[in-house]
Write a structure and sequence with these properties.
Elements lengths: L17 H6 L21 E2 L12 H12 L14 H12 L14 E4 L2 H13 L4 E6 L3 H10 L2 E6 L7 H11 L3 E4 L13 H13 L3 E6 L22 E6 L11 E4 L3 H14 L4 H12 L1 H28 L4 E2 L8 E6 L5 H10 L2 E2 L1 E2 L11 E6 L8 H13 L5
Parallel strand pairs: 1-11, 3-4, 3-5, 5-6, 6-7
Antiparallel strand pairs: 2-8, 7-8, 9-10, 10-13, 12-13
Helix pairs in contact: 2-9, 4-5, 4-8, 10-12
The protein binds pyridoxal-5'-phosphate.
InterPro entries: Aminotransferase_I/II_large (IPR004839), HTH_trans_reg/aminotransferase (IPR051446), PyrdxlP-dep_Trfase (IPR015424), PyrdxlP-dep_Trfase_major (IPR015421), PyrdxlP-dep_Trfase_small (IPR015422)
GO molecular function: DNA binding
Organism: Actinomadura algeriensis
Length: about 400
């Protein structure tokens, strides 16, 4: 009854200025989003991404696994904090399969399942290093590890590394000098250098880690992306809990099924588990069930063989295109696995300008600067060959070459 007046919402500008005073300045300046995480429109040539194209994923297996998992208790139950026992057993068996006769294969209860290894890194840095304490990292290294370390407040100490892996003498000196107890590294197909440690280097690093009573956090992110070689984790040679091993399935099963296994032994395992529980309590059971379903299928091995052939062809196509169109680029080594090339450009290259110019011409690239924990020691690009539309790699390289040539004479 009566007259109703309808309120009209008036558009007004957002005003969050008060938050500046409430938040103060950040404790450490973190980059906003890594280039590797950027999504790009489908009409550009994307050489920046960290994630493989759908062509390289076991899509049929993943869809079938979701359908099956939806009918199991995993869809409604709460899994144990450390993970589904069968998935723990799978991660342990994978490392156990490459453990030498004299070694000590891990047991399922050594495994903690994480929602991706990025989360594992954060928990491991918090649990094993701690705020204000030093963490040795290879330089260059994975940008996400640099970010996770900054968030955890740990002090990153770079150790020079390259396509042959870290310099063991420098590593030993840095342990001595800093009193650090943890070294984060990627012994197989490192992101970004593609380095794969020789067995001799793996033994020397393990020897140093033992000598200093320290941990090696081994990030085996590209275990499923061997091209010319099968990765052998350093963790397989460890029998005294020095290596905390991380194996991710995010990129090989599906970016939508973020699952990683962390294998740690002794009190370190309890600390990492406590950190994981504090952060996320447990990992979605349905995602764990899907990951396990996929990797347990006989077709998984067939799929991985196809991925190996696909990556080899893509890698060689991009290398050939760079040789033809970017003669000033130097590839220090052809990676035997992984998803990217680490390409050195002339020292005077203005990488920010090159990235802008390439993007304006429809090619997205990632400046290597993001992979350096301190000042970059050269002008590098990280070019991913696992993205969409490999047929466009020659055109992508042509654009990079043209934009680089515009910077000369510098
Ligand atoms: C070296 C390295 N470690 C860890 C990760 C993160 O893995 P996830 O997606 O499982 O969190 C990545 C992803 O790019 C990586 O390159």
């Amino acid at each position: 009854m009566g007259t109703f007046v309808r309120a009209v919402r008036v558009a007004r500008p957002n005003d969050y200025g008060w938050q500046t005073a409430a938040l103060g300045s950040p404790q450490s300046r973190l980059p906003r989003t890594s280039t590797a995480l950027r999504t790009a429109p489908n009409d550009v040539i994307a050489l920046h991404s960290g994630y493989p194209d759908r062509d390289l994923l076991p899509e049929r297996l993943v869809r079938a696994a979701f359908a099956r998992a939806a009918r199991t208790d995993a869809a409604v139950g709460r899994p144990p904090s450390a993970g589904l026992p069968d998935l723990q057993a799978w991660f342990a068996a994978e490392l156990g399969a490459v453990t030498p006769e004299w070694g000590a294969p891990p047991v399922p209860s050594d495994v903690i399942v994480f929602p991706g290894s990025q989360s594992g890194l954060g928990s491991a840095f918090r649990a094993l290093v701690g705020a204000g304490r030093p963490l040795l990292v290879e330089s260059p290294t994975y940008w996400g590890a640099i970010l996770a370390a900054a968030q955890a407040g740990v002090r990153v100490v770079p150790v020079p590394s390259g396509t042959g892996g870290p310099d063991p003498d420098e590593l030993a000196r840095t342990f001595e000098r800093t009193g650090a107890r943890v070294f984060y590294a990627q012994p197989n197909f490192a992101n970004p250098t593609g380095a794969r440690w020789s067995p001799d280097l793996a033994d020397r690093v393990l020897g140093i880690v033992r000598r200093y009573g320290a941990f090696l956090i081994e990030d085996d992110w590209a275990h499923d992306f061997g091209i010319a070689a099968d990765p052998v984790p350093v963790a397989a040679r460890d029998d005294a809990g020095h290596v905390v091993y991380m194996r991710s399935l995010t990129k090989s099963v599906s970016p939508a099924v973020r699952i990683a296994g962390v294998i740690a032994r002794g009190p370190a395992r309890e600390r990492v588990l406590a950190a994981a529980q504090t952060e996320s309590m447990y990992v979605s059971g349905i995602l764990q069930a899907v990951a396990l379903d996929v990797v347990a299928q006989p077709a998984w091995r067939t799929h991985l063989r196809g991925v190996r052939r696909g990556l080899a062809a893509r890698r060689d196509l991009l290398i050939g295109a760079l040789r033809e169109h970017v003669p000033a680029a130097r590839l220090e080594a052809v990676p035997e696995g992984g998803l990217n090339l680490w390409v050195r450009l002339p020292d005077a290259t203005d990488l920010a300008r090159l990235s802008r110019d390439c993007e304006a011409s429809g090619v997205v690239i990632a400046s290597g600067d993001e992979w350096f924990p301190a000042e970059p020691t050269g002008a590098y690009l990280r070019l991913n060959y696992s993205g969409p539309n490999p047929g466009a790699f020659p055109e992508g390289a042509r654009v990079i070459g043209e934009m680089l040539a515009r910077q000369r004479p510098m």
